[in-house]
């Protein structure tokens, strides 16, 4: 009877230790708080200002912006060489104002003329050249 009790205690300790070590996150995965695989827009031109409410974008394709005036820091923390293009029109149309390549990378950008951002990969950029 004593042996199963010791075995159960050993099993409990093993199960408790496993998740604690597996949940340790690498602090280098975030770039100014922007999670890997995402593009982020910050409250103003300083990345230390924090990501604005609703400012994390995960999916490829166009994302319309509303009431974005003045300088904001924009980060590309997508993986696999994905880019972020800033377009003057809605739905990824208009002139391409800037493309943020690489990951992670960021830039202080005046979003006043920008009405959408597009996340994508490859060489097919949806905005017309300026």
From TrEMBL:
Signal peptide: 1-22
Keywords, alphabetical: Signal
This protein's record includes keyword Signal: yes
Protein name: Peptidase inhibitor family I36
Native source species: Kitasatospora kifunensis
